[in-house]
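On to my pick:
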Amino acid sequence: MIKRHPFILVIVSVVATLGAVHTFGCGASRSARSLAAEKVYVAPGELDKYYGFLSGGQSGSVFVVGIPSGRLVREIPIFEPRAAYGYAMNESDPRRIELASTGGTWGDTHHPVLSETDGVPNGKYLWINDLANGRLARVRLDYFEADRIVKIPNLQGAHGIAVVSPNTKYIVVNGEFEQPTDGLVTNPAPYTSVVAFVDPESMAVKFEVRVNGNIDIADTSKDGRYSFSTVYNLEQGKDMGAMLQYDRDAVAAIDIPAAEKAAAGGHGEIRNGVPIIDPDQNPGVLTLIPVPKNPHGINVTPEGKYAIASGKLSPTVTIIDARTLKIVAEPEVGLGPLHTTFDDRGNAYTSLFLDSQVVKWNIDKAINGASDYVVDRINVHYNIGHLQAVGGDHMHPYGDYLLALNKLSKDQYVPVGPDLPENQEIIDISGDKMRMLASFPTPPEPHDATFMAVSALRPLVHQTYTPAADAVKAGEERVIRTGPHAVTIDMTLIRSAYTPDAFEVKEGDQVTLKVTNVETIRDMIHGFALPDHNLNIALAPGYTKTLTFAAGKPGVYWYYCTNFCSALHLEMRGRMVVQPKDSTVTLTDWHAAANVNGQVVPGVPSTGDKQ
């Protein structure tokens, strides 16, 4: 064993320190950066503490990032087909059909919200809006997949959404863009809009409440009593000049039990199958609370005492008693306040778009008129929109991390052309002073975020599917001619083979392919891509998908696996042979049970299943 003199170790340590100081600048700067890096570092093989769900904006999706690392771990496609996941890539896919029937194959997602039990996320669902097409989508968090997409009737611009706490009684959906009251362009009456209340399980709209003006962001009281929405353009103008005549706009507080009673009593006008409650005919349903002009964010404190509206054009936020609906304070926080979130110690954090800052302020001190209610400020890069502290949108915030969702990145990343990445910044809020920890880029354009603890959600996530009742079982694959121009194929996938690995059809045939991934271990994804037929699907273990497509022109078409799965991945392929429609070739049924070695047994062509 070699002994090292302590003096030598000291010299080596000093040299290393001087080298680090030279690399990072002054010692204090290096120390701060090292501490920040350590705070967000998640070593290979270790897991993040939180799932972060970020809206994808015009990407039409939800980005899933790990917090505190900021690593992108998944993109959940919602309103756009996505080849990477084989999502909505063929005309018979259920999600593709929903997209086509509800508004088209693109969307603009803004506000992700999680299902709750007792005011905390329960890991069952996530909902996301589509501003562009007036839609609401639901994501199953056990599979991280969209399972329902619905069109919200009687509104345009599904913008702010919220769950009705504490147990997800409804999903609230705000209609931002006003329309003629009966949907007809010839209607001379003023335009109006609605707030919709959607059942979380059936995804049916149960009732809507009419609100004049443009309905923006939503939140709800923690006891299920009120839905709060910011409303701008109370003037109901059709252009910017007409929208700016009044001194103030409003927060709309909808009494949910009162609206339910009105709907149940038949006091709503039925339009497109949904009762619309008119507040003028149903006193007590709607209260308009005056706030500074053009308010944007509305956020309810974790214990449910206050609703805080952000002024946008005013340097103030408005604190509203969430039970009496009275304004209790209007503290000044900075220029361009947009949104507010909370920690577990009575502090609020408001994004300042014009100042490019997050301001931390104490709620009780602001209400009591104390001069020192502002606790801290931190610069962000740049022009922050939404922000969210982990758990700050639920009843039990964690009080450790805050995510700033900035609109501009400017000089934060290497240049990639005129369209720069979006910039998200992770801020430590665990102490009195906020500390910037890290930034990370994303595709366009996250608007808002919500979080759930990995320890709570991870046990609920399935990594293999439970095969459905109609799943194709190994040994029961088949090719059946079900009619003069119709063929049905039941297929399985497993490393590294398709069964069957060849089938024949005729020009003019309609082919129905049902395919099951019969793997039983996680992370063995297989794909099925058929060139020149616009077909691409991905199947996780245990999953079954059904495709219907036209056979196309005569020829040989090789289907292949798009997801790398084994050393023989390139050999995982098969042939679809399309015979000319006037071909005299006899096409026979094929059954795996009768073709153990993959050899077609000669037989008589069938017009039905003769198995």
